[in-house]
Automatic annotation (TrEMBL):
MF terms (GO), sorted A to Z: ATP binding; ATP hydrolysis activity; DNA binding
Keywords: ATP-binding, Nucleotide-binding
Start and end residues of each ABC transporter domain: 5-223, 289-513
Domain of life: Bacteria
Higher taxonomy: Bacteria, Bacillati, Actinomycetota, Actinomycetes, Micrococcales
Compositionally biased tracts (Polar residues): 520-530
Family matches, as PROSITE patterns: ABC_TRANSPORTER_1 (PS00211), ABC_TRANSPORTER_2 (PS50893)
UniProt organism field: Rothia amarae
Name by which UniProt lists this protein: ABC-F family ATP-binding cassette domain-containing protein
SMART domains listed in its UniProt record: AAA
CDD domains: ABCF_EF-3
Amino acid sequence: MAHLLGGESLHLEFPTRTIFEGITVGVNEGDRIGIVGRNGDGKSTLLSLLAGRITPDSGKVTVRSGTRIGFLDQSDILDDSLSVGETIVGDTPEYEWASDSKVRDVISGLVSDLDWDASVSSLSGGQRRRVALASLLAGDWDALFLDEPTNHLDVEAITWLARHLKNRWSKNAGGLLVVTHDRWFLDEVCTDTWEVHDGIVEPFEGGYAAYILQRVERDRQAAAVEAKRQNLMRKELAWLRRGAPARTSKPKFRIDAANELIADVPPVRNSIELSQMAVTRLGKDVVDIENVDVSYEDSTQPSGHRDVLKKVTWRIAPGERTGILGVNGAGKSTLLGLVTGAVEPSSGRVKRGKTVNIATLTQQLDELKDVENDRVSDVIGRKKTSYVTGGKELTPGQLLERLGFTSAQLSTPVKDLSGGQKRRLQLLLILLDEPNVLILDEPSNDLDTDMLAAMEDLLDTWPGTLLVVSHDRYLMERVTDQQYAIIDGTFRHLPGGVDEYLQLSAAGQGGKSAGAVSGTSPLGKQQDAGSESAAPKASGAEVRAAQKEINQIDRKLEKLTRSKESVHEKMANHNQSDYEGLAKFSAEIADIDAEIDELEMRWMELSEII
């Protein structure tokens, strides 16, 4: 495979530490690489180095001439003065971008519910993320660098993005580097994994599951080497502890031998460990939600209010482990508010057990606002002077160290912690209050894959009731026993889990984001029903038939595009002096182009019906 870009002997230091120590990496055409590692170890920095955004202290980055690199930042860099359409396609005429099947797919997959003419400044965080992704993916790139692309996306958008990236290039074309903590996404898209740790980049074949298998084997071998080293060190220590007669030049030689023995052994990597914490005793009654409606005043609605939840009944059992799915704005937070008491029902009844102690791991890190200027160890020390976990009594400092905090970080003000460290501290503070009902609202935000695995291990043994709202499919399926979805305000059980929810969503039963800007995208434009030019409304059967034909056309266009690429490849490898053979290839390409043009015209006609 042809080389796209790479870095040779890259060394980078920040004022406080060394990020990379002479790493060498390369990206070839056809590579789909997922980048994992602990927060703060340099995943995003590696992307920026290879993209030329950061200059290494030594070493060099080489990029094949003409290679176009598209970069998605973690942070929001959209121009608020532009509209949605201007952000995605710029000033390209509609007839040009609408005839591009790739651009149409991006728009329908990410922003079909947004008003094309709406200002970017009016969008929510999740909508801005989708617009940023659409703007990037609508362009032509030889390599894509994506930094946490699934942040703020719901399950449907993440599934669409995975499918798009798998089909964007042919098998041996294009290059993808993606930093993400979404393990389902890594397994679905990536063929290789790079683990960033301790100043190096360690490659593994395969996606997340294959990476874990290889890493377990690597760690097992390292553990065997470490056990041998410890045995030798214990023998040395026993020998050195012999009495005064041993304190001669000979012990000095033995000490040097011991130091030499351990000189080339790397330090044991910092492990993150969470053990079962105590919970308040929970009776047989938890929370019963019976025939509940929730609505809010909304002057834009004909009725003067907007119905969020309709006739919801949910009897939460002790020890229940439930995952809740739904598009952004469907009412998931409202439902959790009923459980906690933060939301009052418009009708129906909510009953809570007398012994219920509910805690919520929020997205906003609310628990840390009042202590942001305090040292980490002081924040934990105010709770108790000692804790019993896993059958052992620990000081606050020891407990924090088992959560992955270093000695230096224990004296760090909370406000100076990284996002992942704040998330760990937030979770610990909640567990130390000994709740028996734990609500996790997007718990995977800001956590690396190691910390997610540690948190899942904790939740496996946690004896209370667990309610999870997350767009992280891997985590959802890992820690919950059953899933429900909020669809059009109703609470629906999903025996088939996330797959069943995605099928319902694809069939049009998943609902639209209530946070969407009013209006429609250019692929589903509607005219004012009161205007003279308003087109007659198509029947439901006509719309379904049109959608079915559009899906068929999309598949045909993909097939024709692959055929055209194949002919181009044959033409490039053909004897260039055989003019007759080259003419046949040209005629074949012209026939394919004519068929594509005809299908695209039909596609646009059908889009008007929809």
